[in-house]
Every structure is written in structure tokens, then in C-alpha cells.
Amino acid sequence: MDPENWKNEILCRDKQLSILLSLMGKNSQATPPAIFIYGHSSTGKTFLSRKIIEAKGAPQAFVNCIECQSQRLLYEDILGQLSGMLPCVQNDYARYARCETANDFVRLLKNLIANEKWEKETVYIKPLSQDQLKINVKQGVDNAERLRNMEGHILPVFLRLSELSDCNVCVILLTQIIWEKFNATSGYLDPVKINFPDYSKNELLQIMTLDAPKEYSKAFYSSYVNLLLSIFHMACRDLSELRHLALMNFPKYIEPIEKGDATEGDAHKLWRNIEPHLKKALQTVFLREVSSSQWEQYQLSDTSTLPPLLSARAHVELPFYSKFLLIAAYLASYNPAKSDRRFFAKSHGKIRQTKRMKKAETSSQLTGPKAFQLERLMAIFYSIVDVRVAPTAHIFSQISTLVTLQLLSQIGSGDQLDAPKYRCCVSLDFIRSVSRTVNFEVMKYLYEFAA
Amino acid sequence: SAKAATPQIRSRKTPRKTPSKPLEQARARLHVSAVPSSLPCREDEFTDIFSFVKGHLIDKLWGCLYVSGVPGTGKTATVHAMLEELNTEVQEGEIPAFQTIEINGMRLTEPHQAFVQILKHLTGQKATPQHAASLLEQYFSSPRPKSKPVVLIVDELDLLWTRKQDVLYSIFDWPTKPKSGLIVVAIANTMDLPERIMMNRVSSRLGLSRMTFQPYTFKQLQEIVEVRLQGLRAFDSEAIQLAARKVAALSGDARRALDICRRATEIAERTKQKGSKGTVGLNHVEWAVEEMFCSPKIMAIRNASEQEQIFLRALISEFRQSGLEETTFEEVLKQHVSLCRLQGFTPPSVSEIWSVCVHLASSNFATWKL
């Protein structure tokens, strides 16, 4: 292990590196029972801790908790990695031991350490690498919720694993959320907490310059990254995302040089060439609406039109009555029930009432769709469809099909047959395009937009 | 077939010392497990149960008796004394021989295991719960002219409750059969258990022969302790009275009174000074009572850290302001920070206050939910 050699590889993490190295010491020395490393995504948590532990050469196990949906998988994975007996084709999918409970885990871990004569060495276990949380956040699942769904004793056991097994075991926890979110009513043994702060703009520049291709000088690539950051740093500080963007757009940047229109020193010309391009990339690539390979093709083909965006392609072919049902559902969701008389009844009472009703406190377009009952949906449907429609099984099955297509959602599973309630889940743009195909002017019937 | 080994624990290397000093002897006698041969202050209850079971055995009438009373009032001890007395009468030939089966609801992993246990005691047979239930049903409904009648003691009856109540039903249904030869003595804590948890057809089979053990009064408790210490000069009489009065005022639990007296002997032994009598006095009992009945919360609050105390004060002032028993962490945080400012401390960070809160919650001073 020679951390001095890492100076060129690991940039801008000197403080964290020295803290971790001093905490871990030599393999024969006692370590803290648990180290809790937290920071935003791509701040080098996994990279740094993996690098240090691997350099130590001590027995080690790296576990990703998203792969371990049950505690048994977690324990068996750790034991397998430590003993070097991971299930694979060569060993006929054998595993080190069957381990169902935390009790078994501690016993087996102790046996393993005694058998392998590791008493003098530090054993590193790195579970709860909560990349799981990162992915869950993107899926929109509350992460703390997920943690509480795990059995309550797992985290306390890992925090005092060295005490329970009476061996020199160090557990390293990596996560994006802060320690306070982990606390439970019964209290935990506090781990050593280390924060990995975000990289500053200069640090990002320094790290990204490492990617410079061989044909061009570092200074040249650095100035390119600087340009890139001036546009993207406002929206994104994620190192891996920025590196990806830099690699994607570099061919376009050097295009004038390759063509011979400009030289490396011609900063202004290069900037004028790349700037509109990057601004377009901000709208497209970053949101993954155009896939990276499509973006590369677009750069090579020199066409100025982008392929249609994912969001713009949101267009569904529906049967005639389904369209009207969907429009009716939209009107029922976004119009207050008391305005129905005014829009859909043949004679809608006195005019002066409508003046008073006109001003709504908050826009229903902002507060989201409201729930409505099936009867109201059918009433609106019959009033907006000009022809006579019999209430056949086809019509009702179309409603449930719309629910399975997730264009409507059914709420409250209480009364499925008698009084089902629905909500419309489509956007205004979508409903406008649908109504255009059936020649229905939806804006005239929307409470907020109708004159 | 080889005889199964009887389970046993290892024997001691050195024999146990016999108590020699008066205080040691007192401690041995005051132990809850050292039940005296005759139970003081439970003579009436003893006679009632005894005559019930004896009468039923002689008349060959089968039935149930329900015994209730708060913990520590001598229910199980009285029933055991009754069984012993019956056995001596059997040996004297006054009543026909009978078999005793005891089950305890607390010792069963599952209510239906009661059937397995009863069958095992009755015939030595092992079976699954369902099979055992049908075997027992058969056993108690067919005539058995040669076998002895059975006295079944069911302790902790409330734990045999199941949703269908089939265990309770069977236990109380067997004695109603004319050929069963079964007398059931059921023991539980609550007096109205049959009315509260049992279905009508179960409680009607249990019948109306009930007996309630009242909690001990202070005089009875005093007598219990005095009987145990007969012939020993270890306690001052006022000391026993104090312990008895304290316990009677709270629960009337004899175990509690004995425990307090034993603790008092330990205290007396530890604080013995040269030249003193060496008996347990009023102050020792007072000390023991305080140790047992006082909640440790006030001590814990007194010894809490400065920030924890401030947090508790913030919590109280928040409750006073809002008039509610529940509040959010955010509100307490505001109070905490302003209390810190008032006292001239730099207020801690949110994380630090949160860890204070978690620490208090883990020692049960506050409960919280996310």
C-alpha cells in the first residue's frame, strides 16, 4: 500500500483519505467498529473506500444492499466473499454455509475468522452500500421508508459486529442520506461519521482534465471542460454525468480543427461553434430524451433536426369512444362539480351565478386532478357525445382498459362495484391532441379557460 | 428398546453451604420457593377446595372449579397443598386413589399443545395435537371401570384461549360426560374471565363453582412473614409490620412482601456495625421499600446531561404553550434554541439536538414516530 502513489489518481480527497487511513491503521491494529460515510452521488465514496481496503490486503467483503432483498442473501454474500466460496459454475453453486438469522451470521463469522487464523487482522465488511437508495430516489420511492422495511435488528447488529463476534471487524456503511435518518427508538452504537462534500467547480475541472485524449494537450482539454462547466454547472454537479457530457460533445468541439478551419489556440471560434450545440444538449441529452447513440449519430450526420423527443412522442391511438371517455374524465377531474350544470345542461339556469363562480381561488391545473364518481363521468360523456350511445358492456370495459393503460387511475379500493372513484392522469397537452382528433373543443368546456 | 435418559443438570462440585447465621437462615426461609407445609391465612380457601375435590371424588361426580385472584395470593400453593392432603388421605384409605395431571398455559408453546401434554401424562402416548384431541375425547367418553379418576389442574387458563376456543371447550366439556372421571381445577388471574373471553357455551360448561382469592391484608402478610421466621431472632416486629403495610397498600402480593424482607436482610448485613443487635430494623426495610417501589426516572433526569435537561424543559414548555400532549420536533427545536440563548449557551446544531432527542427516546423519556 502506498498512498503517496495515489496522489495522481485520487484528486481533491486528501482530507478524507488521511482520516480513513489513520482510522484503519495497520491490519493488526484495532479499528473503529463502524464507519459511516455519507455524501451526494458520485463524490467518490465507493471508489475511495474500495481503493483503500483493497490496498490493505485484509480479508474483505463488498455488498450492495439493493442486491440483498432478504437478510439471508446479505449474510451469505458476506460469508461467501470472506471465505472465497461464492456460488458459481466451477463449484457447482455451493455456498459457504446456510445462514438465515443474525445469530447464525455472527457465529459463522466467528468460526470463519478462527479457521482462517485472521484473529490478528482487520476484517472489512462494507454492507449497506446504499446505492439502493440512489436508485430508489430516482424511482420516486421514499428511501427512509425502505430502510424501515428492513428488519429492525440488522443495522444494530452490523454496528456492533466487532463486539458481538469478538473479532477485529470493521463495518463501513456508504450512503447518500445522513445518519440522523437511520436512528431508531432503541438507539444505536454511534459509528464514526465521515462526510464527503461536493466537489467545487475548480475541483471538477481538475478531475475532468484527467480524461484528456492523447492527441490533444491537457491545457486544451481543460479549456474545453471549462467551457462545458460554464454551461452545465448551473444544472448539474454530478461528476459522472459531467464526464459523460464532456466525452459526448468533444467530437463536435474539435470539428473545426479537424476540418482545418481553426487551430487549438482559436478559442473564440471554437466557442462560437460549440455554444449553441451545448445549449441544445442541455435540453436533450441530460434528460436522456434522446439516447446517447442517437446524439452521436446526429453529430456525425450534420443534420440540424433532432430526432423526435420522448415526451413529444407521447401519442396513443385510442378507439373513438375511449377518446370521449378520456375527455369526459379529464373534464370531470379538472372542473368543479358545481360548474357541470353550466357547461353540460341544456338550460343552465341564471347567468349571474356564473359570474360569481368564475373566480376560483387556486388553479386546478396546479392543484392536480380531483377524484370523480363513475356516474358523473357517464353523465359528462353522454352530454359531449352527439350520437346516442347505449351503455353497453363495451363502454364499461373501455373504462377499465383506460385504468390498466394508466390513463385513468382508480382510487379507494373500498367499493369496487357500487361507487368506484377515478382520477384522470393525463396532461392538458395530451387531452388537447386527443380532442383535436375527434373535433371536440376541450378548451371551451374547461372551467379555467372557458370565457 | 433402550430406556430414554432422564434429563438432569450437572451436580455441583462443592456442596451448598447450609445457612448458619440468623440473617442467612432468615433469608433462606424467606425465599419465595420455600413454601411452608401449612399456608397461613388461607385456611378457609383450603377447606373449600379440599372439600370440593374430595366430595366429588367420593360421590363420583365430575365437574369444574374456577379459582381466580391477583398474582401472589397463594392460589397455586393452596391447590398444591390440597393435592398433598388428598394423597395422604388416599394412603389412609379414606378416599379412592386418583391421578393428578398438571398443565400450565405459560409453559405451552401453543394452546393446542395442552392436548399433547394431557395425553402424555395420562397414557404416556405421544401424538400430534389433533390426534391427541380425538384420543382424549374417546378416552373421556368411553366407560373405564378399572382406571383411576383424574384431577386436572390447569394453571394460567387465560393463555389457552384461541379464536375458536376449542381447547377451553374440550377441557370443560370432558367433565360433563358421566363416564369421564375428570375433575378440573382451573386457575387464572381475573375474576370475570369466563364472562369476558369465553363463549357462552364454554362458560356455561365451566359452571358456577368459583372461588376468589382476595389480596392479603397487612395483618395476613405480617403473619405470613412471621410464620416463616418462627424461632429466629432476625427481624424487629415493627420492621415486618412496615413491609406488610407497604405491600398491602399497593398490591397485597405475598411474593413482593417476601422479596422486600429478603432485600432488607441483605441491607442489614451490609450495614451492620459492631455492637449493634444485628437484626433487621425499620430503617433497613424502609431502604428496601424505597429501592423496590421508587421509579428511577427522577434520578435519571437529575443525572442527565445539560443539553438533555434543556431538551426536556423545551418539551415541557412546548406542551404548556400548545396545550397538547404531542408536538413536532421542529417546535421543540425552536424552544430548545431559545432556552439555550436565554442561558447564554451557543445553541447546538440540529443534528446534535436530534441525537439528544434520540438518546432521551432510547431511555424512554420521550416517544417519537416518523
UniProtKB/TrEMBL annotation, chain A:
Question: Which Gene3D superfamilies would you find in this protein's record?
Answer: P-loop containing nucleotide triphosphate hydrolases (3.40.50.300)
Query: What protein name does the entry list?
Result: Origin recognition complex subunit 5
User: Which of UniProt's keywords are assigned here?
Assistant: ATP-binding, DNA replication, Nucleotide-binding, Nucleus
Q: Which domain of life is it from?
A: Eukaryota
Residue ranges occupied by any Orc1-like AAA ATPase domain in the UniProt entry: 10-172
Family classification: Belongs to the ORC5 family.
Using the record's annotation, list all stretches that form the ORC5 lid domain: 221-287
Which segments constitute the Origin recognition complex subunit 5 C-terminal domain? 318-446
Question: What's an example GO BP annotation here?
Answer: DNA replication initiation
The protein's predominant localisation is nucleus
What's one Pfam family here?
Answer: ORC5_C
For this protein, the record's InterPro entries field holds: AAA_16 (IPR041664), ORC5 (IPR020796), ORC5_C (IPR047088), ORC5_lid (IPR048866), P-loop_NTPase (IPR027417)
Q: According to its UniProt record, where is this protein located?
A: Nucleus
| GO molecular function (one) | DNA replication origin binding
| GO CC, alphabetical | nuclear origin of replication recognition complex
